[in-house]
C-alpha cells in the first residue's frame, strides 16, 4: 500500500510539470486501475514484482487522476469576448473578505449572470476609488451575503518569473477561474446592491464563523501591532500580518508557527481528547457507568478528531493542517476498529489523502516541508528507547525535555537541504528561536487566543490582551535574534546533484547511534552552502527583463558586478515589484548585493519598489532623477548610500562591458517644467559587438534631443527596451531608425488600462522588421550577450498546462 501511495504522489507531481493535459484522462485512469488490480491478483505470490507493479500503477493513477481533476477544474472559462466588459452578476460572498486601505477583496460564488458565461467562482476586488477617476463606495460585504454587482473580469493571469510565485497555479488550486473588480454603478437599473443578509450553506456558515471570530479579535485588539498574529492563530488568516513582521519570522525560522499549524492542531485535539476521556471514565461524575457501554479511549479519539476537524475548518484547509487532520483521523479510525497501525502507514495514508483531494498541493513549499519534517522525525527517532511509566516523575520530565530537544535538532538539521532548495537560505538562529517560540505559541498563546475568541466579554478581552502581550514580548526577542548578522545563511538554489548529495549526507548524519562517523554527513552540505551565484564570463553580459506587470525592472549582470535598472511598480501599500519579484529572484540566485541601482524617474511603475529593495538588499550606490524628499532618496540617506543624479556623459566599465548614460542633461534636474518622464535616465550598455539601450519613459521630445546631440551610430543597439512601454508618445520612426534594433522588449501589464503597447506603435516595430517580445505574454525575458544574443522566454522555457488558461 505504501508503495502504491508514494507512486500516486509522484504521478500527481509529474502531471504538474506538463505543458498540456493528456487526452482521455478519465478512460486511461480506469484502464490503469483495472490493469493494476489484475496484475496484483496474478502476481500475489511474487512480492518483488508486486511492488514494482504497485509503484508503476501508482504513478499512472496519480498522473491521470490529477489530469482528470485538472480538466474538470479548467472546464469553466470566461469567454475572451467577455474580458473587460461590464457584466451584471448575482452571487454570494464565498470567502473571508480581506480589507485594505484601498478597498476589499473576496471570492464570489456565481448564481446568475446577465449576458455572459462566467465561471462558478471568481475573485473580486472592490476599490474605494475607481481608477482614481470617480468615487466608488465600497460595500460592507460579509461571508454568505447575496449581492448583485456590476463587474469587469479577465481570465486568470499572473506574473511569470524564474523562482517566482505562480499566481495562476494558485488560483487553479482554489477553483477560481476568473478575476476582476467591481464597477461603479453605471446605470440606475443595475445598482450594486445586497439582496440577502445570509444564504444558508455549509461553506457560508464556516466563513461567517471565521469572520465573526476575526471581528471579535480585532475589536478587542484594536490598533494593536500583533492583532494579525492572533487572527492567524485562530482562523488561519495571515493577510493582516505586515511584511516587516514576516521578514523577522522568516529570518528566525518560526513562520510555520504563525498560523494554524500541525503542532497547534495536535495540541487542541489532545486537550479535547484528554478532557473527553477523563469525563467519560468518571461517567461525568454520575453513576451511569459509561465506560462499560463504550471504552473511554474511543470517546477520546472521537472528541480529538472532531476538535481537529473544526479547527482545520477555521484554517481554510491548508496543507499542514490537512496532513495533521488526516493523520489524526487515521489514528482515531484504527483505534475504533481495533487495528494497531505504524506511524509510517499513517503518514503515507495522510499523504495519499492530501494528493487525492488536492493534487496541486505538491506545487507549494508547505507540502514538502510538512511531510518532510514528519518523515525526518520518523527516520531519526525510530528505535529510540523510552522511559518506562513506572520511572520517577523527574526522570520522565528529563526524558521528555531531552526528546523535545532531540526532535528540534532533528527537524532543524534534516530540513536544511530542502530549505535551501525551496528558499535558498536557512536560519542559523532557528533552533534557539523555535525552542522558545514553540512552547510559547503552541502551549500558551494559541489556547489563550482560542478561549478569548469564544468566551463572553469582558473575560474574552482580558485573555486576548494577555495573548497579545505575550506575542509582543516574544516578537521583541525574535526581532533581536533576526537582526544578528549571522541569523541567516544564503546561497543559490542548489542543482539536483547537490541537493541529492546533501540528502544522502543528512541521512548519514541522522542515522541511529552506533552508525560509523555520523559527523561526516555534514560534509555533504559544503557544495550546498558554499555555492556562489552564477555569472557571465568576462566581457559578456546577462540581462533579465522581469515580468512585473505595468512597470520596469531590469537586472544587468557582468562577470563581477550587478546593476538593477528600475525597481518595478507599487501594487499596494505593502506590496511592490521588489518584494514580490526582484528580491525573491535575487535570493534564489544567491545574490546578496547589487553594485548599483538606477531609478530612471519617480513614476510609481518604475520607483514603486525602491524602498523595499533598499531595505532588503545591500546596494553599492544609487543613481536617479528623483526629486529631493522622494521616499527612495530618504531611504538611501538612512542607508548612507552614495547617491548621484543621472547625467548625460557619465560612463564606466565593468569587466570589459561599457555603460554610458545618454540622458538627461544636467539642467533637467532643476527645470520644474519637465515631467518625470522627460528626465528618465537612459543607459546604453555595450558588451563586445552587441549592445542594449534602456530608455525608461522618454517621449518624442527627448528622443529628438538624443538624435540631435548624438553622432551617427551612438544610439545603435541590438536590443531596445521600448520607451514608455510602447506608448503613443514615444518610439518615433526616426528614433527607431537610429537605434535600429533587431529585438525590442515591451515591459507591460496584462490588459493594462493604458493599453500599452499602443497598436500603431507595436505595428511600427513590426513593420521595421524588429522582433517584439512582451513580458505580459512571454513572462520574464533573459538575454545572454556573447558571440550571439541568446534569448530565453520564461513561459516558453517552462510551459505549464494552466498558463494562459
Question: What's the short version?
Answer:
By secondary structure, this protein is of the alpha+beta class. Helices cover 45% and strands 17% of the residues. The strands form six sheets. An eight-stranded mixed beta sheet has the order 19-18-17-14-13-12-27-28. It has a seven-stranded mixed beta sheet with strand order 20-21-22-23-24-25-26. It has a five-stranded mixed barrel with strand order 1-3-4-8-7.
Throw out a few tags for this protein.
alpha+beta; 7-stranded mixed beta sheet; 805 residues
SSE blueprint:
Blueprint: H1 2-15, H2 25-42, H3 47-74, E1 87-93, E2 98-100, E3 103-114, E4 121-127, E5 129-130, E6 134-135, E7 146-154, H4 167-174, E8 179-182, E9 193-196, H5 202-220, H6 227-235, H7 243-252, H8 262-281, H9 290-293, H10 296-315, H11 319-337, H12 343-357, H13 365-381, H14 393-414, H15 416-423, E10 425-427, H16 430-454, H17 459-482, E11 488-490, H18 496-509, H19 526-529, E12 541-545, E13 554-557, E14 562-565, E15 570-572, E16 575-576, H20 577-589, E17 593-599, H21 604-607, H22 610-616, E18 618-624, H23 631-639, E19 643-645, E20 651-654, E21 657-663, E22 682-687, E23 690-694, H24 700-709, E24 719-721, H25 733-739, E25 743-746, H26 759-767, E26 771-774, H27 775-778, E27 781-785, E28 789-793, H28 794-797
Parallel strand pairs: 4-8, 14-17, 17-18, 18-19, 23-24, 24-25, 25-26
Antiparallel strand pairs: 1-3, 1-7, 2-3, 3-4, 5-6, 7-8, 7-9, 10-11, 12-13, 12-27, 13-14, 15-16, 20-21, 21-22, 22-23, 27-28
